[in-house]
Amino acid sequence: MQSLWKKAVLCALILTSCLPVSAMNTTGKQPQEDPQNPVPFAAAVKKDGKWGVINDRAEVVIPMQYDKAAITLAPDNLQTRELSAASPSRWNLIEVQQGKKRGFYSREGQVIVPVSYTSRSAWMEDTVVVQTASNRNALYDINGTELAPAEYSYISPASDGMAAMKKDGKYGFLSISGNTILPQYEEVQSFADGLAPVKEHGKWGVIDKAGRTVVPSIYQETGPAYAEGLLAVKKDNRWGFIDKSGKEIIAPSYKKVQLAFQNGMAAVQDNQNLWGFVDSKGVQVITPQYKAVYTPFSEGLAGVSTVDGKGYIHPDGRLAFMADYAQLFPFHDGIAEYRTGKITPSGYYASPSVSIGIGIGIGHGHHRHHPYDLFDWWPGIGIGWPYYPWGIYEPQLSVEMHRGYIDNTGRVIVSAANDHVFPMTETGSLVLNDNRFGYVNRKGEIIAHLVYRELIPDQTAGLLLAKNEDKKWGALSLTDGTEIIPFQYSELSATHSPSIVYKQNGRYGLMTNKGLHLTAAVYDSIADSDSGLFPAEKNGQWLYLSTSGKEVIHLPDSITDARPFVQNAAAVKENGKWGLINHSGQWIASPEFDDIQILPSHGE
User: Fold this and answer.
1) Residue among 171, 118, 524 at smallest CA distance from 360
2) Predicted pLDDT at 86
3) Rounded-to-integer distance, Cα 415 and Cα 435, Å
4) Helix (H), strand (E), coil (C) string for 518-569
5) CA angle, 505 as apex, 502 and 509 as ends, to 5°?
6) CB within 8 A of 464, min separation 6: which ones?
7) Which residues, at least 6 apart from 3, have a Cβ–Cβ distance to it below 8 Å?
8) Alpha carbon distances (Å) from 568 to 44, 203, 597
9) Dist. CA 361–CA 139, nearest whole Å
10) What residues contact residue 423 under an 8 Å CB cut-off, 6+ apart?
């Protein structure tokens, strides 16, 4: 049974029709093209200790000479994070490793990035920064064009079509379209809306993508980039905002400001160290009166610190409700996270989310050299909140915080007094207390009391798979907590479909999400699949079950293992070697490989 702590949210089922097959042919057919998959079929294969890649005709498209081959070779804990934001064209790329160096191919076998780097950025705007063993950086696009050779001490990931770079101690920019703004600046920020802050002769100004000066270098500091048409600037030790022409819309008169406008408002601090808000026209819409501002406005509410404690305010400054917790978060769909516990920052660390590599990361610790995500936000530590890219920098706390949730009236939905509250989902939140699990919906209603040894939300089936005190499994409705499947099974497993795998008397079977048995418990094993076909073993023979429980593909006795179908092909093992079959049970690739991993074509 899959561990609850590692249980991922399941994807939607991709239904696949197929016909019963009783034997495997030796003459294979290519898997049918899947219109939902925009990239060609590819499978990483291992032979004689080396990996390569084959296509749907079993042709080797990437040579069998690499130590590793996969969609991404990022560390396991970063792969989902990287690919969740991947563009469709990114899924056409395959990363390989040879020794300590890596590179990229396309699925058709075109070299995109030569096997040359030891560290890289995430793909941003269909470009990637790679760093060689000699700490030189290069820039490539997704078509395999080298936009910049490995001669720079720093290159940032692209932002607004431009990548900051450093050479011979000076900064400039590389354009994705091929233009270059020569290194001449002391520091740079990132491009947004065609403009970027740059520093020369000790002062900051603004340039456009042609390198023309738009705002002269007269400011002590600037914000990370333009947001909502305005840029934070500092002059004579006071902060204000300028527009794209350089006009001071909000004259530099504040001690501190939120470094980027959000939803038409920005927080500002006056000479008495009190915080208020201004709008994009410079009108002070909320007079400075707060000790701190903890969140930007979201869904009409902002977290602040008043003389009476923390709370949320309306856009007109009226107090909405008190929320005197250690950390406050913005609202999303009517709910905001809060946290309790002692906040003891013990420093900051650089997350490897941007540098996905062997060895050190790309870039510098000094934040000025990085593009910023203008809408990143750190909760509970006041303004101005930093805007580092993709969470490069995150606060490291010396104690564990306890999460809870409130609604937009301040009512506690899930209490942080529990031992652990899991992140809120579209249906609710899993709760752990005294080693027992429960479930609370988004209205704060208890769906499952804190009495279960294990509890697995299955969004696809609409169930909570639960293990009771007698160590028996059953299932509750995810909507109202009523018992749907009686507690009489030794195991229940969620799948990518509404079907449930159950175990009874030492054998496995398939049932509906209403508890109706689709098959008897006669199988040695049943594996999950998002293709609508479940690999199963019965009395030593491998086969595939449909979502209705029908045995649709029977494999010969010589098959000793079978994996789920991906892109209309499945890896099966015969005589100790792996090959590929299609839905008709015919060989696509004969069993001659030590291992096969069919590469996903999207976030499946």
Assistant:
1) 118
2) 86
3) 16
4) CCCCCECEECCCCCCEEEEEECCEEEEEECCCCEEEECCCCEEEEEEEECCE
5) 30
6) 439, 447, 448, 455, 456, 457, 458, 475, 476, 477, 478, 481
7) none
8) 15, 59, 14
9) 15
10) 403, 429
105 forms beta bridges with 94, 111
What is the Cα gyration radius of the chain?
Answer: 28
User: Which residue from 356, 325, 327 is spatially nearest to 128, judged by alpha carbons?
Assistant: 356
The CA distance from 86 to 63, in Å, is 25
b/e burial code for range 19-49 (CB count within 10 A of at least 16 → b)? eebeebeeebeebeeeeebebbbbbbbbbee
Are the CB atoms for 41 and 31 separated by under 8 Å? yes
- Residues with Cβ within 8 Å of 210's Cβ and at least 6 positions away in sequence, in order, are 179, 181
pLDDT confidence of residue 399: 52
φ/ψ of 389, rounded to 5, equals -75, 130
CA-to-CA separations, 326 to 318, 399, 400, 423, in angstroms, rounded: 22, 12, 12, 18
In this prediction, the residues of the chain whose per-residue pLDDT falls under 70 are: 1-37, 343-400, 603-604
91: phi then psi, degrees, rounded to nearest 5: -70, -10
Q: What is the pLDDT of residue 481?
A: 97
Q: What distance in Å separates the CA atoms of residue 411 and residue 396, rounded to the nearest whole number?
A: 29
pLDDT of residue 178: 80
164 near 371, Cβ under 8 Å? yes
